[in-house]
Structures are given as C-alpha cells and as structure tokens.
TrEMBL record:
Keywords: Membrane, Signal, Transmembrane, Transmembrane helix
Lineage: Bacteria, Pseudomonadati, Pseudomonadota, Betaproteobacteria, Burkholderiales
Endpoints of the signal sequence: 1-22
InterPro entries referenced in this protein's UniProt entry, alphabetically: IPTL_CTERM (IPR026442)
Protein name, entry field: IPTL-CTERM protein sorting domain-containing protein
Domain of life, source organism: Bacteria
Pfam families xrefs: IPTL-CTERM
Length: 366
C-alpha cells in the first residue's frame, strides 16, 4: 500500500507540479539560446529524488537586477509566489505573470520572432520589478525594465529595431489595459506555470512553464463587510466570486459566516466565534447581521467559502479584515425646547405691536 501511495504522489507531482508543496528543487539547467534569458531543464527533482515534471521545464528570468543561471547545476524553491517578485505588486504580480504566459507564450515565445521573444522578456521584467498593481506603474521608459532606452547589446534584437519597438509597445499597452482589473486569483489554464526563487540570491528568480494544462482549480472569493460596528446596527456582507476555469458558482453551495473575535486579525473562522452562518445565495446577493450586546468590544469578520457547480470545489475560506471593535451607539442628541409665550403674554405683545404701529402712522402724518 505504501508503494502505491508513493507512486501516486510521484505521478501527481509529474502531472501537476504546481499542486505540490513548496520545496527545494535541484537539477541542471541549459541556456536555450534564444533572445529571452531562459533555460531549460529536464531533470529537476525534489529532495527525495522524485521528478518535478516528466516534461521539459522552461524557465524564464523575471528579475532585471540579478544574473541568469546559465548552464549550471542549480537549486530553486518552487511555489515561491510573491517572494519571486522584486516589485510591490504582490498577488497581482503573480496573476499578471500567469496572464502574460497564458496570452503570449505561444505567439511571442514559441512561434515568435526574436524581436517578439525579447519584448516578452522585457514584459516579464516589468512585472517582476516595476509593476505595483496600477496602470501607471507600467512604463517603457523608466524603472528597472525600460525597453525604450535600455542599451540592449544582444546580437539579434536592438532597441532601435522597428519590429522590436512594435512588439514591446503592443505588450505594454495590453498590460496597461488588462492588468489593473485582472483578478488576483487568475491562473493559466493552458500551461502549468510556477514561480521559482533561486537558492543563490545572486541568481535570477524564474517563471517555470510546462506545456501542459494544470488541473482544474477551485474558485476564490473576495469578501467585504460594510456598516457601522455599533450594537444594534446591521452590517452587510458581500463578496466577488472568481473561478479561473470559468466554472459557474453554486449559489446554494457557497457559504458564509459572521465571526467575532477579541483579536484584530484572524486567518480563518475557526479562530473566532461564529455568530451567524448560512448559504449566501450567490455573489449577486448580500447577507446581513444585527450586532448584539454580546458582540460589544469584539471585532467582526465576514468569511466566505466559495463553491462551483462544476469542476474543483469548494474553494478555501476567505475572511475580511477586522471591522470594529463593536461599540455602543452614541446617545441621541438632546433636543432643546423652544420657549413659548402664554396667552396673556401673546395678548400683551399684540397690543404693544398695535400701539407701535399707530405711533408710526401718526409720525408719518405729522
């Protein structure tokens, strides 16, 4: 039985390395010889000797500030995620690299001209070094990656080459348009894409590409909570739903929890007290919760576990940042009564006004 389990584990790692836990990889990498700073390896393996992939792995540099690992025995950390990105884009950068490979690997790298391949390299450097999640940070003439001004001494592609200029302008404009609204959970469905950090910090982090589609991925959710954290007030929980494989949400399967905790941060609902739970009814709906006296001085969270009708499901539970702490509502403002005149006072005032009016008339006649 242990042999069968071990064999299944190896098969899973070979078929879908991006599902494996982050681990050390070793192997030989050979320069592929094209205008992209890339290497190819067919013998990357885990510490136990199991292969990372049964297909060749293409690794392309995503950092403009360190040296590429050419034709060496090297070691990486797989599943590096945001730690492989030098810029400040975080999860948005991981999604952007997946999008770039998904959209342009075939046309710009595998079947592209030297100018297109080199433009793809600059686009990866832009995401890896300068992108911060905004369109304004994608800039061809500033930052670490600047294809419009870089003195590219490569013997195939030069900055003044019109074909190169057209290629990088096309990529940069596409990034400006697509990346700021790209869901952070976006992942390639055409290729298996992984981010590596080099165990030698002087050498490049890489994006690893295997020409095989990864397994179906679970859906993701981004929850939000709105409302005033006052005892007696009603707060509203909403969320966005995303599935990288375009699997439609299961409205009755997606669940929510309102959770309270004395801690101002929380990783999942098990770390707090669940005060309300149920089915969301889908991302187009919203759910509410009325804050109770027992919630006083506690932080409130809204947690969602998304579910899809087809494909891999459910996704992982995701919780909002803390709302609160919950406090008692402020007392209503004090209403000051406007002084009023009694019946005799009103009569006296009317008489005085009448006399004043008569005096004014006489004054004018005289």
């Amino acid at each position: 039985m242990l042999k069968i389990i071990s064999a299944l584990a190896v098969a899973l790692a070979m078929a879908a390395p991006n599902l494996s836990m982050a681990a050390s990889l070793t192997g030989h990498v050979a320069y592929s010889g094209d205008p992209v700073y890339s290497v190819v390896s067919d013998n990357l393996q885990y510490p136990d000797g199991s292969p990372y992939s049964d297909l060749p792995v293409l690794l392309i540099c995503i950092d403009h500030t360190t040296q590429p690992p050419f034709d060496v025995d090297t070691s990486f950390f797989s599943e590096a995620g945001t730690s492989a990105i030098k810029g400040s884009s975080g999860a948005a950068g991981v999604a952007a690299i997946h999008w770039l490979i998904e959209t342009y690997y075939l046309t710009y790298y595998k079947n592209g001209t030297g100018q297109q391949q080199r433009a793809l390299q600059y686009a990866l450097w832009e995401i890896g070094n300068d992108y911060d999640g905004t369109a304004a940070s994608i800039n061809a003439i500033s930052g670490n990656s600047r294809p419009a001004y870089e003195n590219n001494t490569h013997d195939v592609v030069y900055p003044g080459d019109p074909a190169f200029i057209t290629a990088f302008q096309t990529l940069y404009q596409a990034m400006v348009t697509a990346l700021p609204t790209l869901p952070t959970g976006f992942r390639s469905t055409t290729y298996t894409v992984d981010l590596f950090t080099n165990q030698n910090p002087a050498l490049q982090p890489m994006v690893a590409v295997i020409e095989r589609a990864p397994p179906n991925m679970v859906p993701t959710a981004v929850p939000t909570i709105t409302g005033t954290p006052h005892v007696g007030s009603t707060v509203t929980g909403t969320y966005t739903y995303f599935d990288n494989n375009s699997d439609i949400e299961n409205p009755s399967g997606t669940t929510y929890k309102f959770v309270t905790s004395t801690n101002p941060s929380m990783a999942n609902s098990s770390e707090g007290t669940v005060v309300a739970t149920g089915s969301t009814g889908g991302a187009s709906s919203s759910v509410t919760y009325s804050l109770q006296p027992s919630d006083l001085n506690k932080y409130l969270y809204f947690c969602v576990t998304p579910a899809a009708l087809t494909g891999a499901s459910p996704g992982l539970e995701v919780c909002t940042v803390a709302s609160g702490p919950v406090v008692t509502p402020p007392p209503p403002p004090t209403v000051t009564a406007v002084p009023s005149l009694g019946q005799w006072a009103l009569m006296a005032l009317a008489s005085m006004l009448a006399l004043f009016g008569m005096a004014r008339v006489r004054q004018r006649r005289s």
